Amino acid sequence: MTSRVLQSVLLCMVLAHAQSAFGEVSEFSFGVISHPIKPYGNESALRNAIEESDADNLAFVVANGIKSVDEPCTDKIYNRRKTLLHSAKNGLILSLAGSDWAECRNENGRSAAIGKLGRLRDLFYADEFSIGASKIPVTRQSTMAKFRGFVENARWEIGDVMFATLNVPANNNHYVSDAGRNSEFEDRLVANRDWLNRLFNVAARNKADGIVIFSDSNPLAEPRSAPSLRDGYAETRKQLSTLASKFPGKVLVVFSESDKPSGTYGINWRGNLGELDAGSGWIKVTVTQSQPELFSIENVATQASNTHK
Questions:
Q1: Of 129, 131, 142, which Cα lies nearest the Cα of 14?
Q2: Can you give 192-228 as a three-state secondary structure string?
Q3: Which stretch of DSSP H or E encloses residue 165?
Q4: Beta strands 154-158 and 139-140: pairing type?
Q5: Are the C-beta atoms of residues 256 and 34 closer than 8 Å to each other?
Q6: How many domains is the chain built from?
Q7: Which of 13, 167, 172, 297 is the most buried (most CB within 10 A)?
């Protein structure tokens, strides 16, 4: 059996399993693992989060970040984390963090972000499936010729909810103050704008109840930096607000900016647009399509913040 035929057979099996597993149910849960690597390369938190989430009945897991900012951006680190992520039993989708690439520097202290982003794309996004034992088919932005390089932006659907990753790093979206050095930022801004438009168009066409977007930073947050510094999230924030205002369902942005333990925060709703800081660790989010609030979080200190306001 050729590899192409084998892949086709595998895809059919995965799609059949996904339809039987999620197509008729109104409730399911997913996990979010956020910035689990502690300083100096301590992998125990990531390993524990994978084992604990594997032991739960989850539809999938999204991992945000594979290395801490103080670790070197080397193939040795990347490959070690790749092996660890591939050990997961659940279908696992990697959402890149700024510490994985945007804050990488070479031995001369100069930015190595563009090269490291390219390396991560080669290592972690080789096909149209999730990582881990449970292979979830995903649609990547790279299927469009104009955005062939943007393999990290992916979407998938379970029940009546669309999920997607969006590469928005938590260092002012990797906007560089030096003139003439923002080609990566500008190209990714164009790609992300197109990706968000497509997400909302597909979700509206499929009459989805909700959209969940996973990113490193919170693009909805108002800038806290000095007015003289260019806001790297301005365009994405405006676009998300505009698209959500026209979408009849819920829109939840899940990000991981804080170092507080996961579960410390609830969902902050502004109309139908919600923000969830996943903290540091892992959380379990349950989708109940028969409930108006749609999303709820387990083991969150302030349960009242989970409800729609």
A1: 129
A2: HHHHHHHHHHHHHHCCCCEEEEECCCCCCCCCCCCCC
A3: strand 161-165
A4: antiparallel
A5: yes
A6: 1
A7: 167
DSSP 14: H
> How many residues does this entry show for the chain?
309
> For 26-70, how does the pLDDT look when each residue is reduced to its tens digit (9 = 90+)?
899 999 999 878 776 689 989 999 999 999 989 999 999 999 988
pLDDT of residue 227: 62
Are 37 and 71 within 8 A, CB to CB?
A: yes
Instruction: Examine residue 3 and state whether it is found in any structural domain, yes or no.
Output: no
Which residue type occupies 213? Answer: I
Residue 11 lies in a domain: no
Q: What does residue 33 show for φ and ψ, rounded to 5 degrees?
A: -105, 120
Give the pair of three-digit tokens for residue 275. 């923000």
Does residue 306 lie in a domain region? no
Listed in sequence order, the residues at least 6 apart from 99 whose beta carbon sits closer than 8 Å to its beta carbon are 35, 65, 67, 68, 69
The verdict on residue 36 lying in a domain is yes
Q: Which structural domain, as residue segments, surrounds residue 211?
A: 17-301
DSSP 95-125: E--GGGTTT-B-TTS-B-HHHHHHHHHHHH-
Give the predicted TM-score (pTM) of the model.
0.88
Q: What is the CATH number of the domain that holds 282?
A: 3.60.21.10
Residue 164: which H helix or E strand, with range? strand 161-165
